[in-house]
User: Which sequence fits this backbone?
């Protein structure tokens, strides 16, 4: 794993893109819906509580940005009622979602993931435990659904150097203090790349 922080009561894990892919595939062994749920958290930055919201009617291609966006109703980090935002979806995830929707014969209003937040969190734990058993790596036992969002945010903010305002918009953070914890230390690879140039 890129990094683990167990200095608090809750262990925080940062997964690399390859580790996220492995977790997706492992979750998918117990059903495509589980793989989609992990993709939405690890590749699109959704909170576990947001995963059951989107459907095909929420997904659109933006010609202006040349990207896939989808509407999410999620947590308001300033408190109060939920807020609506456009989340970003990578092209390969959009392709998977389109295939999934066609094969499942989902209507425009059918949620891609029809599961409760506790179930979604349990799916991540089950997949992480399965990876731990396959790899004989006990660090996977600590992976949670929020670690997928944490890994997504840190990868884009630190490794890809996406600007903070863009990340706040697509990730649903209302102010800088809410996103600041995701500005973790760069990986050794990022340090090497930055210092070589």
Assistant:
């Amino acid at each position: 794993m890129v990094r683990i922080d167990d200095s608090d009561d809750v262990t925080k894990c940062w997964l690399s893109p390859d580790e996220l892919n492995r977790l997706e595939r492992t979750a998918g062994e117990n059903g495509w819906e589980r793989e989609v749920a992990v993709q939405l958290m690890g590749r699109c930055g959704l909170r576990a509580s947001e995963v059951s919201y989107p459907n095909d009617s929420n997904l659109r291609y933006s010609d202006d940005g040349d990207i896939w966006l989808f509407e999410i109703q999620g947590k308001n980090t300033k408190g109060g009622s939920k807020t609506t935002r456009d989340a970003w979806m990578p092209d390969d995830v959009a392709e998977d979602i389109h295939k999934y929707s066609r094969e499942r014969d989902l209507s425009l209003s059918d949620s891609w993931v029809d599961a409760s937040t506790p179930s979604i969190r349990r799916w991540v734990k089950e997949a992480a435990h399965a990876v731990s058993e396959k790899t004989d790596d006990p660090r996977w036992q600590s992976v949670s659904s929020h670690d997928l969002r944490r890994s997504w945010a840190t990868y884009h903010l630190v490794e890809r150097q996406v600007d903070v305002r863009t990340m706040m918009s697509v990730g649903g953070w209302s102010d800088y203090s809410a996103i600041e914890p995701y500005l973790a230390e760069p990986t050794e690879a990022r340090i090497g790349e930055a210092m070589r140039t």
